[in-house]
Amino acid sequence: MSKITVEIDDDLEDIVESVIEDVKTELENWLKENPDSDECPELYNDLDYSGSIHEIIDGAVPIYTNHIEGLFYLHGDKFEDAFDDAGIGDKNAESWPSGWKAAAIYCYLEQRLNEWWRDNAEDIFDEWKDKEEDSEEDEKDTEKED
After folding, report:
1. Range of the domain at 92
2. For position 119, what pLDDT does the model report?
3. Distance CA 119, CA 106 (A)
4. What pLDDT score does 144 carry?
5. pLDDT tens-digit readout, 104-117
6. Quick check: is 134 in a domain?
7. Cβ atoms of 105 and 64 closer than 8 Å
8. Better pLDDT: 97 or 114
9. Alpha helices per DSSP H over the chain
10. How many C-beta neighbours within 10 Å does residue 62 have?
11. How far is 15 from 109, CA to CA, in rounded Å?
């Protein structure tokens, strides 16, 4: 009997980090466009108004069957739990253009993004707001000196 060794690239955390970095960029852009905001924007009402957040997540989902199957082999339970938690349908190939497994990965990425947002967005907003206030004070001080 012969043995076969198979290698699977586990790039799930890289994919998650990519989604988070892209959403951070969207947040920074939103803050630049809305400098008078007194509240942290809501992820899906404010930032995703144009669909950009869904595009980021969707664009991060692997498209090749081998990649999807490899990630599912390593993380299938997490993906299935996220899919079930989303309550978006049955686990069958007929219901999903790219297959339910790709949809499950999407659900997982969205879930991880939501967790990150809950833990970090307000802090990022507060840091930005503090910088804005400091910048305004510096401008006032400069005007007084002139």
Report:
1. 12-123
2. 97
3. 20
4. 60
5. 999 999 999 999 99
6. no
7. no
8. 114
9. 12-33, 52-60, 65-86, 100-145
10. 19
11. 8
CA distance 69 to 3: 21
How many domains is the chain built from? 1
Which residues, 6 or more positions from 32, have their beta carbon under 8 angstroms from its beta carbon? none
What radius of gyration do the chain's Cα atoms show?
21
The letter for the amino acid at 1 is: M
Q: Is residue 76 part of a domain?
A: yes
Buried b (16+ CB within 10 A) or exposed e, 37-49: eeebbebeebbbe
| Residue matched to tokens 């012969």 | 2
Looking at residue 92, its pLDDT comes to: 83
Determine the Cα–Cα distance for residues 137 and 72; give it in Å rounded to an integer: 52
Is 65 part of any domain?
yes
Lookup: tokens for 118: 């809950």
Cα–Cα distance measured from residue 27 to residue 33, given in angstroms and rounded to the nearest whole number: 10
Q: Which two tokens stand for residue 61?
A: 């989902």
- The helix-helix angle for 100-145 and 12-33 (nearest 10°) equals 40
Mean pLDDT of 12-19: 98
Residue keyed to tokens 């890289």: 14
81 inside domain: yes
Is the per-residue pLDDT at 83 higher than 70? Answer: yes
